[in-house]
C-alpha cells in the first residue's frame, strides 16, 4: 500500500470555507425544489434570489478508499422558506453504517436525524459543540439561527450519499420550523410515508 502525504487545511469561519480544500460544491436556492412544505414561499424565494448560494461545502478528500477520511466545512445561509428554516437536502450514507461528526464553528444549527424506521432525533449545534451522527441515521443540517451556520465535519471517505431514501418517503418525518418565539420546533411532515419493513430491514442489514 502506497503512503499518502499529510495534509493541512484552515477553517475560515468568516468565509465559511475550508482553505486548502480539494472539492467545493454549492446548492443554490433554485436547486432545492421540493424540499420545503410551502411551495408558494419557495417560489417567492427563487424569484428573489434563486441563483444565490443556499449552502456551500468545501472539503479535503485524500481518496475514496475504505479507511480514509473526508474533512470539510459547510456554510449555510440563515433564513426561512415560509415558517421552515433553511436546510440541506439531507441523506443517508450510501454505505449506511458509516458515521459522521460535525463541529460547530459559528451560528446555531439543528442536526435533524431520522432512523430508517422513522425515529426522530434533534441535536442543537452551537460553537464548539461536537455532534456524533451514528451509523444508519439519515441526517440533515438546519440553520435555526440568524447568522450563517458554519460547521466542520468529518466522515469515512467511502461513505457516499443516498438522497433517494428521503425522496421516496416524501421528505424527512419532521420539519424544523419557527416556534413563533424566535426559536425552533419540530413538527410532523404531513407528506411523510413510512418505509416498508422490508426496506428498513435491508438498510439495517448492510454492513459492507
Ligand atoms: O449532501 P447534502 O445533504 O447536500 O449536505 C451536505 C453535507 O453532508 C455532507 O455531504 C457529509 O455527509 C457534507 O459534505 C455536508 O456537510
Ligand atoms: Fe453525511
UniProtKB/TrEMBL annotation:
Its EC number is 5.3.1.9. Pfam families: GPI (PF06560). Keywords: Cytoplasm, Gluconeogenesis, Glycolysis, Iron, Isomerase, Metal-binding. SUPFAM superfamilies: RmlC-like cupins. Pathway: Carbohydrate degradation; glycolysis; D-glyceraldehyde 3-phosphate and glycerone phosphate from D-glucose: step 2/4. Residues 26-190 form the Glucose-6-phosphate isomerase prokaryote domain. Signal peptide: none annotated. CDD domains: cupin_PGI (cd02218). InterPro entries: G6P_isomerase_archaea/bacteria (IPR016758), G6P_isomerase_prok (IPR010551), RmlC-like_jellyroll (IPR014710), RmlC_Cupin_sf (IPR011051). It catalyses: alpha-D-glucose 6-phosphate = beta-D-fructose 6-phosphate. It is found in: Cytoplasm. The keyword Metal-binding applies. Fe cation binds at residues 91, 93, 100, 139. GO terms for cellular component: cytoplasm. GO terms for biological process: gluconeogenesis; glycolytic process. GO terms for molecular function: glucose-6-phosphate isomerase activity; iron ion binding. Transmembrane segments: none annotated. It is an enzyme of class 5 (isomerase). Belongs to the archaeal-type GPI family. Homodimer. This is Glucose-6-phosphate isomerase. The lineage of its organism: Bacteria, Pseudomonadati, Pseudomonadota, Alphaproteobacteria, Hyphomicrobiales. The gene is pgiA.
Amino acid at each position: 500500500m502506497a503512503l499518502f502525504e499529510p495534509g493541512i487545511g484552515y477553517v475560515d469561519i468568516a468565509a465559511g470555507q475550508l482553505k486548502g480544500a480539494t472539492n467545493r460544491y454549492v446548492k443554490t436556492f433554485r436547486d432545492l425544489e421540493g424540499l420545503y412544505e410551502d411551495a408558494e414561499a419557495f417560489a417567492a424565494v427563487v424569484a428573489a434570489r434563486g441563483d444565490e448560494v443556499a449552502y456551500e461545502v468545501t472539503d479535503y478528500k485524500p481518496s475514496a478508499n475504505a479507511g480514509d477520511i473526508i474533512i470539510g466545512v459547510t456554510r449555510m445561509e440563515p433564513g426561512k422558506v415560509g415558517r421552515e428554516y433553511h436546510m440541506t437536502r439531507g441523506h443517508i450514507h450510501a454505505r449506511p453504517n458509516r458515521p459522521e461528526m460535525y463541529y460547530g464553528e459559528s451560528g446555531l444549527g439543528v442536526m435533524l436525524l431520522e432512523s430508517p424506521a422513522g425515529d426522530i432525533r434533534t441535536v442543537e449545534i452551537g460553537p464548539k459543540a461536537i455532534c456524533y451522527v451514528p451509523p444508519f441515521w439519515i441526517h440533515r443540517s438546519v440553520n435555526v439561527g440568524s447568522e450563517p451556520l458554519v460547521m466542520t465535519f468529518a466522515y469515512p471517505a467511502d461513505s457516499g450519499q443516498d438522497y433517494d431514501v428521503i425522496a421516496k418517503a416524501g421528505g424527512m418525518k419532521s420539519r424544523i420550523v419557527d416556534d413563533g418565539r424566535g426559536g425552533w420546533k419540530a413538527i410532523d411532515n404531513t407528506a411523510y410515508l413510512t418505509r416498508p419493513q422490508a426496506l428498513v430491514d435491508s438498510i439495517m442489514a448492510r454492513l459492507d
